[in-house]
Each structure stands twice: as C-alpha cells, then as structure tokens.
Amino acid sequence: MVGKSYLVAGLMSGTSADGIDVAIAAISSRPFASDDALSVRQVTAATVPWPATERKLIFELFAGRADPALICRANFTLGERFADAVQQVMADAGIPLHTLDLIGSHGQTIWHDVTADGRVTSTLQIGEPAVIAERTGVTTIADFRVADVAAGGQGAPLVSLFDWLLLRPPPLLNGVEGGWRALQNIGGIGNVTFLPPAGHEATPLAFDTGPGNVLIDWGARFASGGALTYDRDGWLAAQGRSEETLVARWLDDAYLHLSPPKTTGRERYTADLARTLHAEAHAAGLSDLDFVATVTALTAASIADAYARFAPGPVAQVAVAGGGAHNPALMAHLRTQLAARLGREVAVVDHALLGIDADAKEALTFALLAYLCALGLPGNVPACTGAQHAQVLGKIAPGRNYRRLEIGD
Known about the structure:
The protein contains 15 helices and 14 strands. The longest helix has 25 residues, at 68-92. The protein is globular, with a radius of gyration of 20 Å. Strands 1, 2, 3, 4, 5, 6 and 14 form a seven-stranded mixed sheet that branches. Strands 11-10-9-12-13 form a five-stranded mixed sheet, sandwiched between helices. The protein has helices at 52-62, 68-92, 129-136, 145-150, 159-166, 214-224, 235-239, 244-251, 254-257, 271-283, 288-310, 328-342, 361-375, 382-385, 402-405; strands at residues 6-13, 19-28, 39-49, 102-114, 120-126, 140-142, 172-173, 176-177, 180-186, 189-195, 205-211, 315-321, 347-350, 395-397. The termini are close together. It has 409 residues and is of the alpha/beta class.
C-alpha cells in the first residue's frame, strides 16, 4: 500500500446518534517514517441522518432495553445503514464506488463498561462490518476499540492518534513559547487531546472530559415537549439563565475528579440522570429554558475544569470540533470558563483554522485507522488511552477487492 494514494472511507456514529458521518480521504505515505510524511486529504464528507426507526432502536440499546436477539438483529440492521451511507455519499460526490480501497467503520457504541475506579473492562460497537463489505464490495475494517481495551487501555479517545500525527503545534503558539494545543471534541460526550509543541519531548494526553451535548440534548427535549432533539445554534440556552449554584453542585462528580486516562459515555450520562437534574432545577425555581442554559454552562465548566486539573502544559489554543462547535452559547461559556479557571484568556478556534473539517474529523480518523491496520501499524497512543503498549487496531472483513489490496506489502 505504501508509495501510492489510497481512497479510504471513514464512518462514524457517535453518542448523539444524530447521523452517520462519512468522510472520503486520499491517504498516502507510511506514518512514523521520518523520511515519508503522512498525507490525509479530505475528498468529500457528509452526514447521513439516521432513519427514525434505526435512531429509536439505538436509543433503546443505549437504555439497556434489549435482549440478545434484538442486539444481534440491530448489528446487521445498522451494518446495512452504514453501507447505504457510504454508497450515498460516494454517489452524491460522483465518485465510483469501485475506486474505494478501504472502509474504516467505528460502528455505533451501545455499551462501554467502566468500573467505579475508571477501568474499562469491555466495550461494544455494532454495525456489522461483514455486511458493509458485502454490500459495497469494499474491504471493511471495524471494531477498533477492543484491541486497545484488551491491552489494558480505555479504548478511547482514538482520535488522539490523528491529532498526534497531524496536528502538533509549532514551538511558538499564539505568542506562547512552548504552548500546548488542546483539541476538544464536543459530541454527545466531550474529549480532549493535549498536544505538546513540535520538538518538545513530552507525550500527549487525552481523555473524555465529561458531558458534551448529551445533557443539552435532553434539555432541548424537555423544553420542546419532545419536538427538538438538540439546541440548534444555542437558541434555547440563549433564552434562559444559567444557575451557577447548580453548576457548582453538579461539577462535584466522581467522574470529573477521576485522573486520566479515563473515558465515559451514555452509560453514565443517562436519561435518568438528565431527569434527576431537571427535577433539581425545577425545585430551585428554574424554567425549562433555564435548565438548558444551566446544563450548557455545566458542559463548558466541566471542560474548563478538566483543563485546570489535568492539562500537562500551558494551553495556548483550544481547537473545537463536533456538534458543540456550532452552539454559540456553549462556545461563549467555554471562553468565559477557560479564562476564569486558567487565569488568562485562551484562543478558542474552529478546526478549520488547522485545515481540518471539524464535522468530518472523527470520520477521517477512522479512515486513517483503517489504513494503519491494513499496513499492520499501531492505531493507538498508549499515553492517551492507557494501554500497556502500542497496538494494531481493527478487525478486517474482506470485500471483493481484498486480493488486490496487497495488505501489509
């Protein structure tokens, strides 16, 4: 595979389960080789919304309301929809499907098993890769998290390898000598990668910061009587007032105080938790709009507090990706909270400033991880996931193009 450009699709559905992110990338060169720089060039990207039936099914799985038969069927059903999504995006872009070399699919996480002391004992992503490979004819690599967990890691954030290989900051960043870059994703759950400047011997650090959009999404449902699934452009939060007493109380959370590496998910930030917080807010005299404003402030505060507690170096820039980057109310709170908790103004920018499509970044990551797996190269950063060693990630479902790939050559 080395020495030419390969066309790779990355597929991602996150904890918000609002759609399947599809990114098509041209990837070339051998990573980790000093004389051969890695290139990941986005060709096209789009989000294909989940059909209502499948989205309802995913939330049933999140809630643990599924027997083995339902999980088994869902694995194949979601695989069909992932296959449909990549074919749709390729067709819309006018790219022949037969030119695609690989598909990397994160799948849909339905359970991430974390003990009270923060160890991950198991994790489950569904969306059967053999179905994707059969429907598209393209070799599909999926199930990336489990190898890292088997090696003692958290299985996430896997985007940290993309960050480490492609987005390290220069020695002077925003006027700060030796300043670190924080790459913050705000999907359903928030995660961050702290990157030292180029030439610095320090290792990166990554972990889940806590809630991203998950509590805000529940707030939008409560405020709209179920009509809205998220707070578009922060419109609901802007109409309410945040209650700082509640923000401070809700920040006193065991997960937020736990030292990294650490990960979390909907297993912790459940509908029951959202209803409990909502009831507390009502008892304190807050309206539904105030609740949206308060959990928006909480999300920003949890991110900033994580930086104050755990950032391994001076943060000079925060580049935000994910759906939360499109919420002006959340971004305003984040800037305020960072300044208050770090004691100085910090530049908060979009990933576009770094030449990366913020909405496609995670899907691009899984395209890259598929490429690495095909080369037999590691896809994790042990310093970020807590794994005992670097590990090749992913399981290969051969497509009709498998023999011509010359995988590992």
